[in-house]
């Protein structure tokens, strides 16, 4: 079986990958309200940005439980200030670039037959224009669909400022110069996620993990059943074929990125979904990861 088929077979329609422009993906996770309603509510207070325990632990250690925040039990009242659409069909992860507003509406209709009103939640992984670029439009025209953003980048998104991230080669420097002129249009997010939140209340069995390295506040979405680690710009995939994991062109902390990837691999996630390039499974990832861990003296 080829890598593309392997990815599709594992995801089995649970996660839909939509390419917004050449190899720039957004992701939709299918809601399963029946499954979510039958299990206990697990959530964590999403509004505080002062508790850095998870982040600190995450920075120091390579392996898990302690390094990545896990959902904790608490009441469902923390989302009482927003109205959750309990009939929604999907959660959307990232929204594409400024100017892709109409394209987003069209692809949602074409690929899944939905409008943004069929979303219970939009999660923005970090404050970059190709991820949060259409949020202003969604907020304006679909105000009842809540948008969750990384706690550490909440103020940047409100001001329309991109999160700092360093270009690592010449191509990235050129992209940076061109891209820096394109600011994110400001919008008012509804929720601040710092890692540890569970999405069960939004109809999806997945949790949020803080994964700094590309940007300081970057978050990722991990399915409970381990079928997918939706890691967006934590790394990238091959632009011409499946199964080619690599570093993103922009990052601030390579060691932290490697630790994040190792954590996700050790946790047993079966596919790794990235914004730029194709997705990949464990097989190509372990080959790449072992080499990088050795080169960077992390094993
Ligand atoms: Zn980015």
TrEMBL record:
Residues 77-276 form the Metallo-beta-lactamase domain. It comes from the Eukaryota. PANTHER family: METALLO-BETA-LACTAMASE DOMAIN-CONTAINING, METALLO-BETA-LACTAMASE DOMAIN-CONTAINING PROTEIN. This is Predicted protein. It comes from Naegleria gruberi (Amoeba).
């Amino acid at each position: 079986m080829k890598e593309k088929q392997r990815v599709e077979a594992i995801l089995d329609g649970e996660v839909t990958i939509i390419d917004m422009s050449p190899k720039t993906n957004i992701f939709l996770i299918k809601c399963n309200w029946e499954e979510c309603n039958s299990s206990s509510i697990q959530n964590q207070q999403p509004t505080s940005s002062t508790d850095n325990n998870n982040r600190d632990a995450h920075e120091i250690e390579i392996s898990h439980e302690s390094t990545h925040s896990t959902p904790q039990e608490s009441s469902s009242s923390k989302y009482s200030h927003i109205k959750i659409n309990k009939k929604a069909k999907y959660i959307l992860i990232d929204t594409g670039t400024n100017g892709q507003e109409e394209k987003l509406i069209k692809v949602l209709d074409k690929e899944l037959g939905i409008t943004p009103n069929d979303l219970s939640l939009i999660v923005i992984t970090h404050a970059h224009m190709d991820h949060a670029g259409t949020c202003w439009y969604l907020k304006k025209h679909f105000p009842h669909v809540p948008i969750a953003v990384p706690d550490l980048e909440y103020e940047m998104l409100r001001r329309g400022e991109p999160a700092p991230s360093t270009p690592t080669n010449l191509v990235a420097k050129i992209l940076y110069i061109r891209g820096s002129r394109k600011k994110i249009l400001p919008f008012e997010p509804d929720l601040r996620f710092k890692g540890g939140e569970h999405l069960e209340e939004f109809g999806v069995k997945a949790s949020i993990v803080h994964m700094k390295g590309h940007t300081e506040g970057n978050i990722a979405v991990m399915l409970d059943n381990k079928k997918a680690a939706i890691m967006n710009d934590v790394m990238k995939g091959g632009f011409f074929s499946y199964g080619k994991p690599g570093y993103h062109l922009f990052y601030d902390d390579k060691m932290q990125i490697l630790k994040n990837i190792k954590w996700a691999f050790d946790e047993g996630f079966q596919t790794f979904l990235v914004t730029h390039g194709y997705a990949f499974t464990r097989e190509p990832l372990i080959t790449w990861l072992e080499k990088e861990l050795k080169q960077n003296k992390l094993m």
